[in-house]
Amino acid sequence: MRTLITNIGELTTNDPAVGEDACGTLHDAAVLIDHGRIEWVGPADEVPADAEGFEEVNAHGGAVLPGFVDSHSHIVFGGDRAAEFEARMAGQKYAAGGIRSTVAATRAATDEELRARLSGFIDEMAAQGTTTVEIKSGYGLDVETEARLLRLAAEVTEEVTYLGAHVVPAEFADRSDAYVDLVVGEMLEACAPHAKWIDVFCERGAFTVAQSRRVLEAGIARGLHPRVHASQLGPGEGVQLAVELGAASVDHGTYVTDDDIAALAASDTVLTLLPGVEFSTRQPYPDARRLIDAGVTVAIACDTNPGSSFTSSMPFCIAVAVREMGMTTAEAVWAATAGGAAALRREDIGVIAPGKRADLVLLGAATRVHLAYRPGVPLVRHVWKDGVLTH
Ligand code: NIG
Ligand code: FE
């Protein structure tokens, strides 16, 4: 099936070979899609003469951009923590200890319950323009439940991450090394066949650098690729560890230091910012301007989870990144598309160019700036995933 999207007012391609700026922007453009792939991109009045047999969609001057690539989520879980959020807004501090209450609710949930919940999140993300999502385990924290969460995640995405080292579960309190033995032993054996990535929460109150290194190295030896949660609640050595081990991404970076920035800038590791977390936990926003100016590759993700960030809206996260982190809208949109693809080491998504996957978003607004300019307004008009109109 072929589709021609025409009369595009502003097309963000992220293709450096195209267009007027770093986002590969074209005006008055058209895109031709053939069987799930981008076939042609160019000015609307230069559609190839031999292009025929397609369905035409008139964008009516709206903006088109690559589908959002959300490289960090925790959306297989039971229960929620609205009361914890309410208490936080009344002045209580966020502490990762709340994770344990979600673990209890998740262990108690059936596959059907978890699957229904998960598919609800996937639907709401898709309606807001997300066409690729990474999903982590981490609310099971026993062999059976972690493997169960990964199997469910693998039903809806190929970007599945084993996060057995999320926190130390209650039954291992004061025996964190014994829990790490389980994470790198029997749990890894049960989980690795369902996952592509291994992740660890390297933070005071979760896992030390030495424990994090053990977890990541065991995952790498088992064929998984590393990514890391670090510097969310305070500065630490997690960013340096991620860079040293060649992680695709290190995520949060709320308290990233000058040394971390220098190490990131000299590496292939992406720093994934999670604006929903600072928003919902009242932590200070990291300065994305400083990161980008230093040469760090920055992505934006939603980190959808019941504790620190219960938004699934990439447009919302873009708006917050622009308003609070010093990014231009062009940088934030790049970070939510091409940046997310880099954080997942994917070359087939996050860019609108011939041969790439036809994952696109059409806005009911003339420019991508409207994503930040009109926060909270549902601007996503249409979404194509693999060339198929899904919304
Ligand atoms: O990415 N930092 C650790 N994990 C999640 C929060 C999980 C929770 O609070 O339930 C995060 O923010
Ligand atoms: Fe997370």
Automatic annotation (TrEMBL):
Keyword Transferase found: no
Sequence positions that bind 4-imidazolone-5-propanoate: 81, 139, 166, 232, 308
UniProt keyword annotation of Transmembrane helix present: no
Domain Amidohydrolase-related: 64-365
Location(s), subcellular: Cytoplasm
Binding locations of Zn(2+): 72, 74, 229, 303
A GO term for molecular function: zinc ion binding
Signal sequence coordinates: none
SUPFAM superfamilies in alphabetical order: Composite domain of metallo-dependent hydrolases, Metallo-dependent hydrolases
Cofactor annotation: Zn(2+); Fe(3+)
Xref: InterPro entries: Amidohydro-rel, HutI, Metal-dep_hydrolase_composite, Metal_Hydrolase, MQNX/HUTI_composite_N
Pathway field: Amino-acid degradation; L-histidine degradation into L-glutamate; N-formimidoyl-L-glutamate from L-histidine: step 3/3
Cofactor binding mode and count: Binds 1 zinc or iron ion per subunit.
Record keywords: Cytoplasm, Histidine metabolism, Hydrolase, Iron, Metal-binding, Zinc
Residues holding N-formimidoyl-L-glutamate: 139, 305, 307
Cellular component terms per the entry's GO annotation: cytoplasm
Catalytic activity, EC: 3.5.2.7
Domain Aminodeoxyfutalosine deaminase/Imidazolonepropionase-like composite: residue ranges: 29-50
Its biological purpose: Catalyzes the hydrolytic cleavage of the carbon-nitrogen bond in imidazolone-5-propanoate to yield N-formimidoyl-L-glutamate. It is the third step in the universal histidine degradation pathway.
Family membership noted in the UniProt record: Belongs to the metallo-dependent hydrolases superfamily. HutI family.
Record protein name field: Imidazolonepropionase
The organism of origin for this protein: Microbacterium esteraromaticum
